[in-house]
TrEMBL record:
PANTHER family in alphabetical order: OXIDOREDUCTASE MOLYBDOPTERIN-BINDING DOMAIN-CONTAINING PROTEIN, PROTEIN-METHIONINE-SULFOXIDE REDUCTASE
SUPFAM superfamilies in the record: Oxidoreductase molybdopterin-binding domain
Pfam families documented for this protein: Oxidored_molyb
Domain of life: Bacteria
Protein name as catalogued: Sulfite oxidase-like oxidoreductase
Protein's organism: Niveispirillum lacus
InterPro entries documented for this protein: OxRdtase_Mopterin-bd_dom (IPR000572), OxRdtase_Mopterin-bd_sf (IPR036374)
Length: 220
């Protein structure tokens, strides 16, 4: 699949090194867990803006060039172009988002395609237990299939009634509200169903394999 992660356009090494150092030092950890009934997870602060975080790469993908492949351990491997993606049943949701860098933003309005529609379309095989998201900037991240199979998970093309901008992962990004936002891959171009768990970019660099904000699963 196309990727912007090439020798001519690599991730920002200093940025990656600094975030990896956060994991080594346990930065931002409070050591406190909280029930999900508490809207703000421990160690977080509410913000009204939407901060921009990436690997120093913001790939520009023309809509007529954009593709999403859904494959691996599925009965019906699928590739959608933009028109096919937009023709899927529309799904809207309102959710909070929580970044591992300690900010949270409430009441985000999303529009896109639900994870459950994707699962119904491709029909994961019984041995599929995990998912790896792949992005146009070379980024990867992993979740359990059970995490993806949730009522508020979607592939979003719009935020607050407008197309998601490039800096925030447009034209399409993953939204998994119940987990730290590094699991919600930007610029997604492939959803791979696998049997064995496969840690992604930040998980290989000291970040927690799951990422539950309420139990402060920031780092491994």
């Amino acid at each position: 699949m196309p990727s912007a992660d090439t020798p001519d356009n690599p991730p920002n090494a200093k940025l990656v090194e600094s975030k990896q150092k956060w994991a080594e030092e346990g930065r931002l950890l409070t050591g406190v867990a909280a029930p999900r009934a508490d809207r703000l997870p421990p160690g977080q602060r509410e913000v009204k803006n939407w901060p921009v975080l990436d690997l120093g790469i913001q790939p520009e993908i023309a809509l007529d060039q954009w593709e999403l492949t859904i494959d691996g351990l599925v009965a019906h491997p699928t590739t959608w172009g933009w028109a096919q993606f937009k023709s899927q049943p529309p799904f809207t949701d309102v959710s909070d988002i929580h970044c591992v860098t300690a900010w949270s933003r409430y009441d985000n309005h999303w529009e896109g395609v639900s994870a459950r529609h994707i699962l119904e379309t491709v029909k994961p095989l019984p041995e599929a237990k995990h998912i790896v998201f792949h992005s146009y900037d070379g980024y990867t991240t992993n979740v359990a299939l059970s995490v993806f199979d949730d009522a508020d998970v979607l592939l979003a093309h719009s935020w607050e009634g407008k197309p998601i901008t490039t800096e925030h992962g447009g034209p399409v990004r993953v939204i998994i509200p119940k987990f730290y936002f590094w699991k919600s891959a930007k610029w997604v171009n492939r959803i791979e169903f696998v049997a064995e768990d496969r840690p992604g970019f930040w998980e290989e660099r000291g970040y927690h394999n799951e990422g539950d904000p309420w139990t402060e699963q920031r780092y491994s």
